[in-house]
Specification:
With 286 residues, this protein is an alpha/beta fold. It has a single domain, classed as TIM Barrel (Alpha-Beta Barrel), CATH 3.20.20.150. The protein is 42% helix and 17% strand. It contains twelve helices and twelve strands. The strands form three sheets. The chain has an eight-stranded parallel beta barrel with strand order 1-2-3-4-5-8-9-12, surrounded by four helices. Strands 6-7 form a two-stranded antiparallel ribbon. Helix 5 links the parallel strand 4 and strand 5. The longest helix is centred in the middle third of the chain and has 19 residues. The chain is globular, with a radius of gyration of 19 Å. The relative contact order is 0.14. GO terms for molecular function: isomerase activity. Keywords: Isomerase. This is Sugar phosphate isomerase.
Length: 286
Amino acid sequence: MNKGKIGVQMMMLKGKVEELGAYETMKKLHELGYGAVEVSQIPMTEENVAELKRASKDFEIKIAAMSAPLEPMLPGAPGETLTDDFDKIVNDCKTLDCNFLRIGMLPLNVMGDKEQIMAFIERAEAMADKLFEHGIELYYHTHHIEFQKYDGEYLLDIIKNNTSKLGFELDVHWIQRAGVNPVEFIKEYKGRISLLHLKDYRIGKLDIKEEDLKDMGKFFGKFTNLIEFAEVGEGNLDMKAIIEAGLESGAQYFLIEQDDTYGKDPFDCLETSADNLRKLGYADWF
């Protein structure tokens, strides 16, 4: 039977890496039964790269994907970029035996401007071509902003139709937040996805205090912002249908991500997600 590999998006563990180090963080993931990670928002220092490599070998955890912005998130912002640090990033990929790189989001200063976005995408497509020569595939991670419509067409579809080398890392929470059915949408991207973010979508508890009722602005602020990032299986998304659609559409890695754990230990959240996915019948995907 055809199957994928379930992993963890390490963005949610950046605090743990600071506290415990990359090696011990990976050891804990191994204890929870995970066998793949996507590295994001973790500084790729010499030490971290070495620790990730050692942990990958010792615990048989595949480095499924790594992150690198094409350009700074804002002009002059610090950090490595594919434009300025191409050789270093390619070298890190080779060191960690990783052939997927992903751009986490659009630069903040081009958001909302279609012409600037499409110029950025053109540069990303050229970079995908350049990386391909090194055996590395470039993916673009989606949010809800790409579902803005221009002349009746989603920005994301415009991006897809103007690229061929660039792949897409679809994030099911953000697709849902955009008002689109994740199961059906994933099918439309068949052949363009290898990485899928499993992120559930929950309506949180409305916590109303007496002073909120005296200020309607405050009340409706809470009322309209009830959407939360949930552990996989703890929210409202049909995860089984999502995973099956992903597999059918070419996804190889199904990466758990939770942008906010609302004060809970991220390892506990990852344990809950893993338990729920095992109950859904994906125990042999770990």
